[in-house]
Design a protein that fits this description.
Largest sheet: 6 strands, parallel
Radius of gyration: 20 Å
CATH architecture of the largest domain: 3-Layer(aba) Sandwich
Structural class: alpha/beta
Shape: globular
Strand content: 15-25%
CATH superfamily of the largest domain: Glycogen Phosphorylase B
CATH topology of the largest domain: Rossmann fold
CATH class of the largest domain: Alpha Beta
Distance between the termini: 17 Å
Order of helices and strands: EHEEEHEHEHHEHEEHEHEHEHEHEHHH
Number of strands: 14
Strand order of the largest sheet: 2-1-5-6-7-8
Helix content: 25-40%
Number of domains: 2
Length: about 350
């Protein structure tokens, strides 16, 4: 834990950064801003500062090309009080290597089920990938994890020194708007929002026998094929800001078909807009939706049953539950887990 101080110099190294649009980027960018608002000096080193090449099978993700020398220069020039290595990609590997070699303490976070994503694209088993990830995170002083169910799972896989870290939602941006966004479509409206990629399991949602209409909001490598295979589904492409909140608000149920997310920020966004959530009983949904005060959605291995059941949820209760998740609290928890770098002084 960092010693009490009015200002710390905090460095975050991440392979997921703007202009990517995903939960990892949203979490890190918002937490960084909250920390700055609290008076800390924060820098985020991402792929935008390096030569990059497109990630195979997912060209929207840029992978830094041979970043080691330049990254080391950036770290040493910044002189951080705390170093956080957020991801396991080229930048994360280079930062980890430098820290180990120089006796610098750092923290990590488990944001993404990388093993499951690789398996979905290549068929490679998850066991050896988890073994590699376990070694990656073991070099740090603590691994931040967003939900209790994921902490339990990683502990069973041999991960150690796991630290709890929640998530937040922008309650001023995501709020209930008039429910007319999809008034031209037959109701009820079932919506998916997020990356349109194979690991999100969107086809399972689109295959469900549901009344009314299905809407998909977002972009990604699977968009063209899903548009071709599901001509009756409304695909809006990506939406941001108020337009995104209006899309959430205009739906009757947000269907979250992913089985591989570590949290699912979109769940909180939907709830903040008053829209109930239907999902499988997996990490993320079961941590957020179960044991809420009032009915805010439904989790079930039968996703169709969950979607239909969620139609009876209390939209006011959805908003009330989302209000429990503050980005400031998320940033304060993050700060509490950081450790002094020690070795670079």
């Amino acid at each position: 834990m960092l010693p009490p101080a009015p200002c710390h110099r905090i460095l975050i190294v991440t392979d997921a950064w703007k202009p990517q649009v995903n939960g990892v980027v949203r979490t890190l960018s918002t937490v960084a801003q909250e920390l700055q608002d609290m008076g800390h000096v924060v820098d985020v080193i991402g792929p935008d500062r390096f030569r990059t090449l497109p990630c195979p099978t997912y060209p929207d993700i840029a992978l830094s090309l041979m970043p080691r020398r330049r990254l080391i220069g950036m770290i040493e020039a910044f002189k951080p009080d705390a170093l956080h290595v957020a991801t396991e990609g080229p930048l994360g590997l280079a930062a980890r290597s430098w820290a180990k070699r120089n006796g610098v303490a750092f923290t990590t976070a488990f944001h993404t089920r990388f093993a499951e994503y690789v398996k979905a694209r290549t068929g490679i088993p998850v066991t050896p990938i988890y073994a590699w990830m376990r070694r990656f995170h073991a070099a740090g002083q603590g691994t931040m994890v967003a939900t209790q169910s994921l902490r339990d799972e990683l502990s069973a896989r041999g991960f150690r020194n796991i630290r709890p870290w929640s998530r937040g939602v922008d309650l001023s941006q995501f709020k209930a708007y008039p429910r007319d966004e999809f008034a031209h479509l037959p109701g009820p409206i079932f919506i998916y929002v997020g990356r349109v990629a194979v690991e999100k399991n969107i086809g399972t949602f689109l295959d469900l026998d549901l009344p009314g209409s299905k809407v998909v909001v977002g972009g990604g490598p699977q968009l063209a094929s899903l548009q071709r295979d599901y001509p009756k589904v409304t695909f809006t492409g990506p939406r941001y800001g108020e337009a995104l909140a209006r899309a959430y608000s205009g739906a009757d149920v947000f269907v979250f078909p992913s089985r591989t997310d570590t949290f699912g920020l979109v769940i909180l966004e939907a709830l903040a807009c008053g829209t109930p959530v239907a999902a499988f009983p997996v990490t993320g949904p079961k941590d957020v939706l179960i044991n809420a005060e009032g009915k805010i959605g439904s989790v079930n291995e039968d996703l169709r049953a969950a979607a239909l059941d969620a139609l009876t949820a209390d939209r006011a209760a959805c908003r009330i539950h989302a209000e429990r998740y503050s980005w400031r609290a998320c940033a304060e928890i993050f700060l509490s887990h950081l450790v002094p770098v020690m070795g670079n002084r």
